[in-house]
Amino acid sequence: MSLNILAVDDSRTMRDMIRLALVPVGFTVHLADDGLHGLEVLDGLEPDVIITDINMPRMDGFGFIDAVRDQDDHRATPILVLTTESSAELKMRARNAGATGWIVKPFDPAKLVKALQMVAG
Amino acid sequence: MSDANDPMAEIRASFFIECEELMEAMQDGLTTLDEGDDDPETINVVFRAVHSIKGGAGAFGLEALVRFAHRYETALDDVRSNKFTPDADAMRLFFSCADHLSDLIRVCRDDDAIPDDRSAELLAQLDTLLGGAAEEEEEVSADDFEPMGVSISLDLDGLGDLPPLDFDVDDAAPMDETPCYHIRFKPEQEMFETGNEPQMLLRNLAALGEATIECDLRDLPPLEALAAETSYLSWDITLIADVDEAEIREIFEFVDGLCELSVRRAGSDTDAPAVTAPIETSSDGFADLPEPPATVPDDPDVPVAAAPAPVAAALAPSAPSAAPAPEEKTARKPAPAKAAGAAANGPKSVVRVDLERIERLVNLVGELVINQAMLSQSLEQAGLSPHSDAMNGLEEFQRLTRDIQDSVMMIRAQPVKSLFQRMSRIVRESSAGVGKNVRLVTVGEGTEVDKTVIERLADPLTHMIRNAVDHGLESTEDRRAAGKSAEGIVTLSAAHRSGRVIIEVSDDGAGINRKRVLEIATNKGLVPADASLTDSDIDNLLFAPGFSTASEVSDLSGRGVGMDVVKTAIQSLGGRITITSEAGKGTKFSISLPLTLAVLDGMVVNVADETLVVPLNVVVETLSLGAADVEMLRPGKYIVRVRGEFVPLFDLGVELGYREARDSYVGAIVLLIAYEDGARAALIIDGIQDQRQVVIKGLDDSFFRAPGIAAATILGDGQIALILDPADIIAEASGASRTEALSA
Amino acid sequence: MNEPLVLQSKLDLPAADPLATALKERLGTDVTVDAGAVASIGALGLQVLISAAASLKATGHRMTIINASDRLIEQMSQMGFTPESIAEGTS
Description:
Chain C: Pfam families: STAS_2. Chain C: This is Chemotaxis protein CheX. Chain A: It comes from Litorivita pollutaquae. The complex is a heterotrimer. Chain A is of the alpha/beta class. Helix content of chain A is about 40%, strand content about 20%. Chain A has a single domain, classed as Rossmann fold. Chain B is of the alpha+beta class. Chain B has 5 domains: about 5-145, Four Helix Bundle (Hemerythrin (Met), subunit A) (Up-down Bundle); about 170-295, Alpha-Beta Plaits; about 355-415; about 415-595, 2-Layer Sandwich (Heat Shock Protein 90), CATH 3.30.565.10; about 600-744, CATH 2.40.50.180. Chain C is an alpha/beta fold. Chain C is globular and about 30 Å long. At the A-B interface, helix 1, strand 2, helix 2, helix 4 and strand 5 of A face helix 1, helix 2, helix 6, helix 11 and helix 12 of B.
């Protein structure tokens, strides 16, 4: 089924990749440049899944996840962390911040779609 | 560059552009860091840049780039987390790594050969520096960085205490029947706080095969006692599916540690190891349940493998540069807040445009200028009053045309920063090559110059910088002996000055060894042995073709290319290069360039029935000669006195070969020309038509390149006029006599 | 008979507590739950419904779930239930 996605990444290339992977399969994709921007975009949005990068200017992924989880509406919204790291420590930090899971970059489009569908509708 | 209909190629191209921006930010950050800045955000910026490059590179399967960036990133991360404080050597290595990263980006972009040796060398140095995080490197690269790799890796060792999988279970099982698994799953409280939902997990599990799902309600209290956010349920699943255990566990990857999970293959005697404390298998737990468990068959609708195929095709029809619909929805969000955020901290809003479109626009504006000039001319010829509406309107039209032209030129303008950053690399490499300690100081990085000019400046500047490091600066010992700091300084500056761009390369070295230069020039027959030359003349010998010799060519500035090539390159940009040097203090090269290559403010003059254009920015004033103003220096050589100063006089008609010398210069019109280096000259012309903007039509190769002629233009009446390069004329005409006259 | 209790579209973590509160207020009566608006139900929403149903049944009342969509029924079945079994307070 079609999902409503919010993707937060400071890399234009990565945002393009995400868009390219998801729009053709019918997902609606909202994009933001960093955590703060992500919160602005999230306001009033009901994404099925949020994807976020970790290393970003202004507000990083951990801060963003924290802030999202602080909103009652989004306590259970799945949040996938987009990361090039696969270290256990990073995953634990993401999880402690409230992340649902992680996607290790690089991803191919089908894998990204699948990962999203694993955690939402 | 790429097929416009291929979105991947489009993104790939866009990635490399982003890389350039990231490299720039990174260079900035490293430089700031090197200057002793300890703002944590500085190292963060550098780190993020490498990180983003790595991420993008991974997406395009640029493995060499990913591997290198990864290790570099790890090193930077150590700095970021204060595990490592870089000293001067470490900073040098970081700069080298940045340079190499930049190289890798380029070879990846151009599909050139990957310099693996250099990567290995630098990686080894990083390992030495940081005490080698080698094992981590192995693991990560094998795991994550296969091109277009696995998105959800089965990260079994990622979260701690999971013992290795017992693969013997699979081997022992009979292969001719579909395996049957018993899975027990009990979510813990924390699982819900991470946004994980048991229903999704159960659904995903059921999608693997035929699942029988039973919910265990034993722990569920009555409603009065229920804490709504506490998890009371657990599930027992029987799954008949042609999968191995790893695939089942993969479904629970994200909740590893957030639930109790046991997976047991039916028919095997031993339970597979459980993730956490195994739960006793309850055969009696559901005895009181009246209804049969719901069975979920293979559900084709469960979207496990969504079709990736239409990705490329579906995107293809949309124009690559058009904003995609989803982003428009994003933009619908409260705009003021977003705009404020962007203004405060975010990057400038930027549109990427194909350079070809800009070129086309530049050309069209050029045509517009010509047309406007033609229109002016015909209106004047029609005898309209200067105060008529038409003429007033024309004035406004001219102003607008000029504004449009300026704006269009601004599109092509770029800060010289990227060029300067490339030069800092040249300094690092060349100083290391000759064992000198050199610092590059840059000034005016924000100065904007036409993109083409910037591109074409790279080679000459590289050569000049190498020269400065190689020949300009003394050896460390000599510097110490001369009482200078051991660190030599090369300064690279850019500034706008009276409608031109001035770029200077200076060093604080020993200055030009004029005795040696003269010796070489004499030996090579460039000047007669008995020539008496001023210091400035000798300095200028460096630009003489054939001056550069094999004997003094080091492996750095060398390849037999002399400063004459630099001079030619600068001239082809409509620029000039001058040199000044002071013994013991250093040498400075000044390049003066037009702001743009396309238009020129010119004075249209007549010489012997020819129409010529003199660049307005060199014309200081126009004079009419009186008898007392001119003095003959020697036959055929005149000087003119202008406000107490003597200026050499040249007759343009003679210098260009249009006509014979005049008998008398009394009453002749002269243009007083001045140069950046302060030199002046007076040019005799026959008449002045007007001043106007002209569009430069290059003479490049298609035309002959006559001495003293820089380019051509088309005037309002359609006539072609040549654009003069007065400096060239004077140099051709007079040689040393010019400076003689000047110093008279 | 009481007004049906109209369920929200998402019965997930944030919805569980309000749902439990609403159902606690209806203990001691027959409860009709209108699931027509429910797009998704999670484990926490599910356990509230089951617990409430069991509590009602223990006091001689009953829960009826109406208007469950196919999608909702599918989700329930993925957790081992049907609307009927939930209303019975059993799996």
